[in-house]
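Could you help me review a protein record that somebody else here produced? This is what I was given.
***
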Amino acid sequence: MNSSELAFKSKPITVTELTSGDFSRWDSFVNQADEGTFFHLSGWKVVLERAFNYRTYYLYTEQEGEITGVLPLGHIKSLLFGNTLISVPFCVYGGILAVNSEAASALRDKATEIAEGLGVDALELKNRAPSDSGWPVKDLYVTFRKEISGDAEENLKAIPRKQRAMVRKGINAGLCSEFCSDTDRFFRVYSESVRNLGTPVMPAKYFRILQEVFGSACDVLMITHEGQDIAGVMSFYYKDEVLPYYGGSIPLARNLKGNDFMYWELMRQCGERGIRIFDYGRSKVGAGSYSFKKNWGFTPEPLHYEYYLVKSAAIPEINPNNPKYDLFIKAWKKLPLSVANAVGPVLARSLG
């Protein structure tokens, strides 16, 4: 038991729902917590409410006037994809942050109470570390995180030989990189990319709101070839970490190794800026992105997504690996881009 746990052990505890007046206190707690992540920040409450009109439940515990735990939750209800209370929708990490077991238990109890009251299929906590809840756990996802250097040549040498050759091909193709604040420019590339993968795209306003809410902690890197945008990635920044989160490219980028060059450029420039952790993000075990990230020399780390089942008899399977979505994915790939961009946001808001 650490000093924080000892300080608050057995003192009266309350659970409160976050309001705008306490955003700074919430974020201060998150930033000081060892397991805090970018996705625990209060800004996501604003994003979820403004971009999707979701009902959010951002819960925190107090003891002796100090915040001792937080749990951000968003409620998604969809006829097609189910009814779930999630920590946190559209984020890869989440779950309970608490300085002691009392606070963690109080937050867990309140979350299950809300889930029961809403009559959801399940409550989902996207934990990076395992808990002792005894709830069912999904082992579908892993994350990839690695320390990078301030020396570009050292980072390049750390990439395995075959992948390093792909990066060099992108460099030799004359590709250029540019940080920008134009999310609509990014959206034009990203929307085509996800359509080609058979996935509904998020609304363009979502990306604008992300940048408005998180400011300098959210930016876009565009890759161009002979003046044409061929790839782009929206990244988040947290402490000394960079998280390339939404990335995409047009078919032309494949032969030019545009994706390889894009992630290398982000790694190179972030390393030179003093960022020390490159968080390549979540992938499904065995997926193409899983192999791609391993090829960069990253080691997969299991994610521990746990579920409290309310109406559902089993862990929900809302992911492309579910066979019932095969026909949908194949059909979506064939849609004209204008149609996919018009219809996609209506569906994407329910994926979580």
Summary: The chain has 13 helices and 15 strands. The longest strand covers residues 66-78. Residues 149-275 form a domain with the Aminopeptidase fold (CATH 3.40.630.30). The chain has two domains: 3-138+304-321, 149-275.
